[in-house]
Amino acid sequence: MPRPVHRRDDVRPEEADHDYLPGLPQRWLLPWYDLVARVRGVHRMYRRTVEIAGVVDDAHVLDVGCGTGNLSREVLRAAPDAVVTGLDPDGDALRRAARKLRRGDSGEVTLIRGFAHRLPVPDASQDHVVSSLALHHVPLEEKRRLAAEILRVLRRGGRVTIADFAGDHAAGHGDDGGTADAQHGDGAHAHRTGRGHRHGRGHQGHGGAEHQPGHGPGSTAYDADNADGGIEKLLTEAGLRDACAVERMPLLGDSVVFVQAQRA
User: Fold this and answer.
1) 0.85 cut: is pTM over it?
2) CA 126 to chain CA mean position, Å
3) CA dihedral sign, ordered 194, 14, 110, 245
């Protein structure tokens, strides 16, 4: 029998107008998202995220910004009996995720349309929170709210594992010692830090899809927040312990950092 996938909407009336960045710039391109991700090697990052997280069977796992379900699928491949909750504001992406995640005969999946600043799961209910390429699309204040929510929903000893762009180029730390603007052309720094530009539905990201295989100098992102240990600082300030960058991976002409922290 196909794996049951439950879906529900958790968007409140006051959140209905929240902007978010879809997985690709135009919605009609969404069916091509997985093909683009596969061709550009993004699935290596999904697999590595799950390996670093160390998910085991029967674990409760929350995938923040799950998009079309690629990271959730890797969780279920590694731990077929895991209980997975995927959260994303993009209903179209969640419909594709539901079709994909039904292809299995064990585990339990719930897909929720909602926003990362308010995680729709009970206190101390999750063994793991995971996220891939979503954080860099969220403004700093929203990231702080997300970090506080991660602390709330993790059980004691539970772990959060985040894979996201390291932000080195966006912050001006180029590999050759030059600035990001010098490497990517005039205006690249403003695009990549999300100042004054709009992409998709808007630049106020709220934990959208697994953004995005087309990442590059023209993307609208807040990845400069991630530079100089920004993700580790974010999690530490929220009260999580032992936040550290575990490793890095080259991806899409950039660098992805894997950061992990734990609830005491």
Assistant:
1) no
2) 17
3) positive
Q: Write b or e for each residue in 239-252: b if 16 or more Cβ atoms lie within 10 A of its Cβ, otherwise e.
A: ebeebeeeeebebb
CB-CB contact of 108 with 51 (8 Å): no
Q: Is the dihedral of CA 220, 210, 159, 41 positive or negative?
A: negative
List Cα–Cα distances, 199 to 73, 137, 158, 192, 202, in angstroms. Answer: 27, 10, 34, 11, 5
User: Which strand (E) or helix (H) includes residue 88?
Assistant: strand 83-88
Q: Which residues contact 93 (CB under 8 A, 6 or more apart)?
A: 22, 23, 30, 33, 66, 67, 68, 209
Q: Which residues contact 63 (CB under 8 A, 6 or more apart)?
A: 71, 72, 75, 84, 85, 86, 87, 130, 131
Quote the pLDDT of residue 104.
85
As beta bridge partners, residue 5 has 109
Residues whose CB falls within 8 Å of the CB of residue 191, separated by 6 or more in sequence, listed in order? 197, 217, 218, 219, 220, 221
Helix (H, G, I), strand (E, B) or coil at 18: coil
Distance CA 117, CA 248 (A): 26
- Residues in a beta bridge with 259: 162, 245
What is the token pair recorded at 7? 């879906």
**Would you say the C-alpha torsion 201, 26, 223, 45 has a positive or negative sign?**
positive
- Kindly report, residue by residue over 135-175, the tens digit of the pLDDT: 988 899 999 999 999 999 999 999 999 999 998 866 665 54
